[in-house]
Fold these 3 entries.
Entry 1:
Amino acid sequence: MRVVKIIVLGMFAAFFFTGFFAVFAAAEGTSFDDAKEIGEGTFSGTVANGTSYYYKVTVPAYKAILVTLEAGTDSDVTLTMYDESKQQVGLGALASNGETDKGFYDGKSTADYLIYLKISDMKIFGISKYTIKVEFRPSDVMSGAELINDGQKISDTLKASLEVHWYKINVPKGEILNVSFSSSRGEIMIALYDQKGDAIDSNIGTLGYVDTKLLGQSGTIYIKVTSFEFQNQDVSYTITPKLVKGSSEVEQTATGFSMMCIGGVLVVIIVIVLIVYLIVRKKKGSS
């Protein structure tokens, strides 16, 4: 009986520990391989004694990912982002004791891509609570620009440093594009590009405009809006495109130069005619 009891207890112990470690090994979020899959939304959790928790997010094409990290009371946590190759990317975040910070990464991709989020406890002992909010934001991809129309007022918000918004508008020949802008809580940079991606005009500030007045480019013109506010604060802006009939400064200069040339030629002709007249008159006087 004793032998049977030992065998039974040994089998039970083996089953218990095997099951325990199997469950532990299969625990969700303990590594890249078993990262918890999430999308846009708000998620909360805890990390303890210097450990980390992993998430994975499939970011849609033409989108960037913004993650707002909030630390719980008496908590100290960090956010680090990794690409599919498990290489660190983007701007991470650090938050302590109720504070918030933002992490941002733009894959500048025309296809869906995978991003890992690693939440780490920075305390040697104890537990840190956290909440993350995941958002998909516009990406810095010119081909994904939003089509807008003449006179259409566009208002939006840049929620992260280096976030980029693209717009495009069709400019007929013989018309000049003027885009006025204003912003609050920070400066923005606005720039115009032609279809080849060559820069046309740019401006930085909280109020101003950009235009195609210099060369008068036509066709599809792209408008790029971004912010350099590294405090990760939201910067709101409004842009308004306006088309007006007219010629470029180059065309105006060329026209003026042509008129000057024509005027100069006429003056030369008049002088020559006058000289010939005087010569003929002098000869007649001598006769």
Note: Helices lie at 2-25, 249-286.
Entry 2:
Amino acid sequence: MMEGIDMMTKYMDDMISPYPIRIVDLKVDPSRLKLQHLKIGQVGHLPGRTLYREKAVFKEWALVFIADGRGVYQEGEEKETEVQGGAYFFFEPGKEYCFGPKPAESWDEYYINFRGPRVQEWLREGLVFQGEVKTAPEVHKWVHKLEALIQLMDSGIPTGADRAALQLEALLYELMISNDSGREGDDEHWPEILEDLNRMVYEPLHPELIACRHHISVSTLRRITKAHTGYPLGDYATRLKVGEAKHLLINTNLQIQEIAHLLGYKDPLYFSRVFKKITGVSAGRFRDMM
């Protein structure tokens, strides 16, 4: 395995690292791939990276795994997050990121650029996430898997690229499982978070206030909510409002427009569309059925 790695093309780029770096692009015609729903465009290994990038925007999704060293990661205007060996995060196409080692420091980086409809399913199931840094145990295990994936991409044959895509999905799944195994502590936050969300059905949702109250980041708040409910934070808050609307429709004589305003909807027509989308019937029809 190591002999194959040594034979790969290495590049010197003093702007990125004082050490040779490896970058492998997809070497075959994408139309020859069997897995059209997922394609890896490029993989790379940047040992001793010193380059810090500001407001970088990417065209494809990317997984970044930090094998060693330290630095920072920031998505848009979100709070800057410290990064160290074992950390991994994603870049979403079209968003701005600041990331990299701090001055006089470096990190050992692996990255994989990917695209395709399969990514949307990964987002729904939590294999890919946004605006957050997670940490994986046993760094050497993941480095071994990443090196094997680079080898497949460097093979220059369609089956190698397809297998690399399959290995990427397996890698992301294993990272998710390994990370979730240490999440029991999140359960202690959930009852109070749920209480806050229920209390806010009559006002606009303010994730920053809830996160601050529980001394967690907004991205952690979103992750905890998704883990316990299966819905993104905004969607779950909307469902709580619709649940309260049902209660008001059944137990009060308030007009639908009044209920909409009580729940923070300035446009009753928009509220009606949201209600029907979630329940399958209009608010008026729901009241008549009861």
Note: Residues 180 and 227 are 9 Å apart (CA to CA).
Entry 3:
Amino acid sequence: MVFPGTQTLPLFASQATGAFARRGLAVEMKPAPNSEEQRRGLAEGRYQIVHGAADQCVALVDAGTDAIIVAGGDNGFNHLFVQPDISDLGELRGRTLVADVANTGWSFVLYDILNRHGLKRGDYTIHEAGAPFRRFEAMRDDKAMAAAVLNPPFAIHARRAGLKDMGPVAAQVGAYLGTVPYVLRGWAAANAAVLSAYLAACIEGLRWILDPANKARAASLVAEQLSVPADIAAEILNVATDATNGLAKDADFDLEGLKTVLRLRASYDGREPPAPDRYFDLSYHRAARATL
């Protein structure tokens, strides 16, 4: 299960170039309506591998489900958008803000940014809209929805719809581990060869996306898979391939980014952040890279 967008370009490439098929893998990508369904579906065994915010895996583990992050991915590519009448984030006091759900990763990022601008949790209302496309539509269609965190292609749609881009959230919160693949630890142990083959195919697709020689074909793939015009597809690809803030090379894992995830969740809960080690196992990623 995935949230289709910039973060899923390696998966699209793995499908299109046959990287999954060459390893005997039949992969069905199911779009996630929201993070709760993604977490619940994994915990219940309805999905074997999910790609979502690292914070979702943290939430599962903290709730007693033995899940693990098995590779890195990106910093989320997220920007904070507000309605055009807002010139300063302090003006969000008393307004309604749009989130996936109130107690998940990008919401914690939003709370942290607003706290830096003098706004506490009770100074605004959260409207839970679900996936990024629903957050964009909520802001576009209802001017009372004052702010949301969005990533491409919805960040691009938001700019073109006249919403105001307040900049990348990573510039304010620092290193952040965004979308990652995560699984149940028991499933991983029982299916180690399958998981390593899957990650190897993902890395192969990622390398294809990042290779400048494939730029034209990659842009066409983006346009097809995300149902966007060629100019937006090109912009999405530029975001994904950015040398500094794009997709992590070979899905490398950002430990400092995970520490930020843990710090923000712990701050929301009023506790000290836990040690990060229990939330990830990179042995399958290492095994995957060894085959490439």
Note: The chain has two domains: 6-75+176-290, 79-173.
